[in-house]
Amino acid sequence: MNVAKSGYRVFSANSTPACIELAKKITERLGVELGKSVVNQEANRETRVEIKESVRGQTIFIIQTIPRDVNTAIMELLVMTYALKTSCAKNIIGVIPYFPYSKQCKMRKRGSIVCKLLASMLAKAGLSHIITMDLHQKEIQGFFTIPVDNLRASPFLLQYIQEEVPDYRNAIIVAKSPSAAKRAQSYAERLRLGLAVMHGEAQCSESDMADGRHSPPCVRNSSGHPGLELPLMMAKEKPPITVVGDVGGRIAIIVDDIIDDVEDFVATAEILKERGAYKIYIMATHGLLSADAPRLIEESAIDEVVVTNTVPHEVQKLQCPKIKTVDVSMILAEAIRRIHNGESMAYLFRNITVDD
């Protein structure tokens, strides 16, 4: 397709093969050429971006996947956005399938809401719109002063279950915590399967830092105003991890949005095996799979981990054959086309529930 006829360009903000591969898949579906640019690191680790063609008056879509070096990827996106802005691009739209720092979207003690900071930085750099997928918390959209389209990967994962999981009618959808029950319920209802929920914890979980169970301590504070005694604050204590629901003789399919540190998933798989599940699958949108995740998965009771290509994970797949990938370039390409043509995005959210 001719650039003049299309009126927009698609650039890759990352020089890694995985990002370029995703960008090429999207541009092939759109029938446009990938924009010419150079993204590299100087000897002192500074990011340099050069736009190799005119973008004056055009709508630009920047595709950025987030590899392990998260902060470098963010700087690449910010520098490229600003370079396009100063090159007089009309609109600059970021296609960020996995939004980084999305787990840091809550205030924790004396920390900060880093996700809000990143949202402000992207808008300040020049982005006018963002396309992302399965935000860790949907409320993150409220951090932005620009429009955000939060696409869903569930239709692709549901299709994988129906086509690639043998005898999926004998499966049961599992939420690894009560907070994930709504997502699991959405999958279960659309597949017409049963639902099980894991309750309790084996060790301290991510939520411990946020729920205040250790602050204030469970003792009376005598240093306050004389005569003022606050009620005794009792610390929370979750029971040992248990399963609410019958998984005996069933295929257990655990669903979540992110799989990064896999210790919780491995512990959940062991409990499900003890309760009689004969196969265990994990379905997640973003496969970060940090540190020793591939090795732990390979040595665990998990039979298969299915993630999308929103995050590069080719190295992890080489380390662990259990990891499978689902391509979501189709929906990203369609979102780009619809936004450029001013068409409604509602079609991309058909049969998608609020809880999904």
Give a description of the structure.
It is a single chain. The protein is globular. Helix 8 (263-274) links the parallel strand 11 and strand 12 (279-287). It has 356 residues and is α/β, with parallel strands linked by helices. The mean pLDDT is 88. It contains eleven helices and 14 strands.
Give a nutshell description of this structure.
This protein is of the alpha/beta class. The chain has helices at 3-6, 17-30, 70-86, 114-125, 154-164, 181-191, 208-211, 263-274, 293-299, 314-319, 329-341, and strands at residues 8-12, 37-41, 47-51, 59-63, 91-96, 129-133, 148-151, 171-175, 194-199, 242-244, 251-259, 279-287, 304-308, 323-326. The protein has eleven helices and 14 strands.
List the helices and strands and how they pair.
Elements: H1 3-6, E1 8-12, H2 17-30, E2 37-41, E3 47-51, E4 59-63, H3 70-86, E5 91-96, H4 114-125, E6 129-133, E7 148-151, H5 154-164, E8 171-175, H6 181-191, E9 194-199, H7 208-211, E10 242-244, E11 251-259, H8 263-274, E12 279-287, H9 293-299, E13 304-308, H10 314-319, E14 323-326, H11 329-341
Parallel strand pairs: 1-4, 4-5, 5-6, 6-7, 8-9, 8-11, 11-12, 12-13, 13-14
Antiparallel strand pairs: 2-3, 9-10
Considering the chains and any ligands shown, give keywords for the structure.
globular; 356 residues; alpha/beta; 5-stranded parallel β-sheet; 7-stranded mixed β-sheet
Global Rg: 23 Å
Counting helices, strands and paired strands, the structural category is alpha/beta
Helical content stands at 25-40%
Strand order of the largest sheet: 10-9-8-11-12-13-14
Largest sheet: 7 strands, mixed
The percentage of residues in β strands lies in 15-25%
Mean pLDDT equals 88
The secondary-structure element order is: HEHEEEHEHEEHEHEHEEHEHEHEH
End-to-end distance: 35 Å
Low-confidence stretches are: none
* Shape category: globular
Instruction: Let me know the number of strands.
Output: 14
Q: Count of DSSP helices?
A: 11
